[in-house]
Write a structure and sequence with these properties.
heterodimer, A: alpha/beta, Rossmann fold, 3 domains, nine-stranded mixed beta sheet, 25 strands, 45% helix, 23% strand, disordered N terminus, B: alpha+beta, Glutaredoxin, four-stranded mixed beta sheet, 29% helix, globular
Chain lengths: 597, 115
């Protein structure tokens, strides 16, 4: 008696202390649901009451059990699970399907407590849950439990049928967990929308420190689950509804918070497996970048994706290939036909392939499966083919999930390639890929060009952040030896592909040959002409020299002649003068001695 | 402290040998110390038992779960007050402060009957 009186006074003291403005930052406890711990910045408030509200089948009990299990496994904190609705063995059966190994958890570490009243229990007047709390106190003392879950508490307290009494019992739980230093979750149903139930839900929201709502909604035939933190006293939290999935590991939450800023940056290039493509990409894809490969059906998107994965594996890296609606076997066979051997890489363990069905799985479920694959396989390259399998559903979070996927890859430094099924129209491309395009670093589009009754594939690099790249269209050729890019012919404002390109190529080759022959002939003829002229020039030069010689000789002959002539004249003159003189004056004798011949 | 006064026969029953004996019924009342609900339940049960026509013979076991929380665990007590009436043929449970005297009397009669 004394002991209990002491406890009551202790309760009061705690309650009063709660009201005093003694500031203490809230401590948090992780739930092990990574996305949830992220949006609440650390998990649930320690030593406080958290309400998990939701309709049937929304995963309230699951959330609570995961919290207990995580507390036990990561912090070694035993837990109590008090079930007001379901028998203990059914609770066990419900979670047997998850990969928790729940049945291996010893009862003294995680106690499942059946708090259902016997079926034929008659109620007469008001009651309280002191009995239960006393039992829990005893168990806690034995086990050292730190966490407790009241699963479906509304079922019990609703039979009090009085708002005041209900409030009192909830307050009793609150007092109890504070006094015992327990962290608690109350799960509360929210499907019944009678005035009373509504009031109770309001009351619980008011009384608890943290309120989480689990909801589900149909979009067309697609069921989308969400989790929303409605309130969190003393803490910041993301108030948006975030997508949630119940998978093999239980509840998982996909926080739509894209980190974006702290991506690792590499300067290394990753080969696409197509050397000509690497060349026009200035050496290949940037490691850790994201690549969007869009195009109409059959434009070799999967082949290019497989080529990147195979090239990575061949260099000793690890790759993961996620495909939608096409089996691994099928892809391996298809790729073999164009010379890409995926089987070898699967066998060596470098390539992990996963095939998912887009139908009947929400994008968040698929996302979580891919997350799991990334965790397990730790790939350097992640391929999702097609990424548009996410986007083309009526699910409300499809676009966000696609972004989250790119974010996941980039934050881990994984080179990401997603393919996107797009039609021919440019407008369509813009509209569907707008989200991903904003976060894709490189966007390659493969389109069909129909020409002369042929359908050919034309590859263009729409954008490539941070790398030089060609702006030219290339023809994508699929052969049994692999993929290749071929330069296309651009002329007369036309791009020629396929056999038109070949024809043009042959035509040009022939013309070129002809041109060569003609050139040789012209060159020969000109050579001959020049030689001829040179010969003629030489002859003229010789003739010129001989004429000059002749002229010289002529000149010297003339000189001789003129000298002779002058002499003759002089002599003649002399003779004539002598004659004249002799006629007028007879020549003295002595002058005749000097006469010249 | 766990077993308390029983009326008329004056026998104090220990938890160990509880259970119905002969045409007696065993009444276990789980209470939470002296909280108002528990006090009312004790009083209401006392009043009902004063009417000899309702139950010919009985033993009352009063269990204070705050003083003996281990008992609350083993007997899986959820709410207080809880009255468990163990008769020769059946065991009946009533929760609450037993303020509805006619339903309490009905329960006691049903528990004591052999049919």
């Amino acid at each position: 008696m004394r002991k209990s009186a002491k406890r009551v006074s202790e309760l009061r003291r705690v309650r009063n202390r709660g009201g005093a403005p003694k500031f203490q930052a809230i401590r948090k406890k992780r739930t092990g649901i990574a996305g949830f711990d992220q949006i609440t910045d650390g998990g649930l408030p320690v030593g406080r009451l958290t309400a998990v509200i939701g309709g049937p089948g929304m995963g309230k009990s699951l959330f609570a059990l995961q919290f207990l299990l995580n507390g036990l496994r990561t912090a070694g904190e035993p837990g109590l699970f008090v079930t007001f609705e379901e028998p203990v063995d059914r609770v066990r059966a419900n979670v047997a399907g998850f990969d928790w190994a729940f049945n291996s958890v010893p009862e003294n570490q995680l106690a499942l407590i059946d708090a259902r009243l016997p079926a034929d229990t008659v109620q007469s007047g008001a009651f309280d849950i002191s009995g239960l709390l006393a039992a829990l106190t005893a168990r806690k003392a034995v086990m050292g439990a730190r966490n407790v879950v009241f699963d479906g508490i509304d079922l019990l307290i609703s039979s009090l049928n009085d708002e005041c009494l209900e409030r009192r019992e909830l307050a009793r739980i609150d007092d109890w967990i504070r006094a015992e230093g327990m962290t608690a979750i109350l799960t509360v149903k929210s499907y019944s929308m009678s005035e009373r139930d509504q009031k109770r839900a309001d009351l619980i929201q008011y009384l608890t420190d943290c309120v989480i709502r689990l909801e589900g909604k149909l979009f067309d035939a697609n069921f989308s689950r969400t989790l929303r933190v409605v309130k969190y006293r003393g803490s910041n939290f993301a108030p948006d509804a975030v997508p949630m999935a119940i998978g093999h590991s239980g509840i998982e939450v996909v926080p739509n918070q894209i980190s974006r800023d702290n991506y690792p940056i590499f300067s290394e290039r990753i080969s696409s497996g197509v050397s000509r493509l690497d060349a026009i990409l200035d050496g290949g894809f940037m490691r850790g970048s994201s690549i969007l490969l869009s195009g109409a059906p059959g434009t070799a998107k999967t082949s290019l994706a497989a080529s990147l994965a195979a090239a990575g594996c061949a260099r000793g890296r690890k790759a993961a290939f996620v495909s939608f609606d096409e089996s691994d076997v099928q892809i391996i066979a298809n790729m073999k036909s164009i010379g890409i051997d995926l089987r070898r890489h699967v066998a060596s363990g470098r390539l992990a392939m996963m095939s998912l069905r887009s139908n009947g799985h929400s994008p968040e479920e698929c996302f979580l499966k891919i997350c799991e694959l990334v965790r397990r396989h730790k790939p350097d390259i992640l391929v999702v083919d097609p990424l548009s399998a996410f986007m083309e559903t009526a699910y409300p979070f499809a676009a966000i999930i696609a972004e989250s996927l790119v974010d996941l890859a980039k934050s881990k430094g994984i080179t990401f390639l997603g393919t996107s099924l797009l039609g021919q129209a440019a407008g369509e491309i813009e509209a569907s890929a707008i989200h991903v395009s904003t976060i894709a670093d490189t966007w390659i589009h493969v389109s069909y060009v129909i020409q002369n009754g042929e359908r050919n594939r034309a590859l263009t690099i729409v954008k490539s952040r941070g790398t030089g790249h060609s702006n030219q269209v290339r023809e994508l050729a699929l052969t049994s030896r692999g993929i290749d890019l071929v330069d296309v012919y651009v002329g007369d404002g036309k791009v020629l592909l396929g056999s038109a390109r070949l024809e043009k190529q042959q035509l040009e080759t022939r013309d070129e040959r002809l041109e060569e022959v003609q050139h040789a002939r012209r060159k020969f003829e000109l050579g001959r002409g020049i030689a001829e002229l040179q010969a003629r020039a030489q002859a003229i030069v010789q003739e010129l020299a001989s004429k000059r010689r002749e002229a010289q000789l002529e000149e010297s002959a003339e000189k001789v002649r003129s000298t002779a002539r002058r002499k003759a004249i002089t002599q003649r003159g002399l003779i004539r003068r002598l004659a004249d003189d002799s006629r007028a004056h007879p020549r003295p004798k002595k002058r005749r001695a000097g006469q010249r011949p | 402290m766990s077993a308390k006064a029983s009326r008329r026969k004056g026998a104090v029953v220990s938890p160990a040998n509880s259970g119905a004996r002969g045409n007696e019924i065993c009444l276990r009342l789980y209470v939470a110390s002296t909280t108002p609900n528990s006090e009312r339940a004790k009083a209401n049960l006392g009043v009902a038992l004063q009417d000899f026509s309702v139950v010919p013979g009985y033993r009352v076991e009063l269990i204070d779960v705050l003083a003996d929380p281990k008992r609350a665990v083993t007997d899986n007590v959820i709410v207080t007050p809880t009255l468990v009436a163990i008769g020769p043929k059946r065991q009946l449970v009533m929760i609450g402060d037993l303020s509805d005297s006619s339903s309490l009397q009905g329960l006691l009669k049903a528990a004591a009957s052999f049919g």
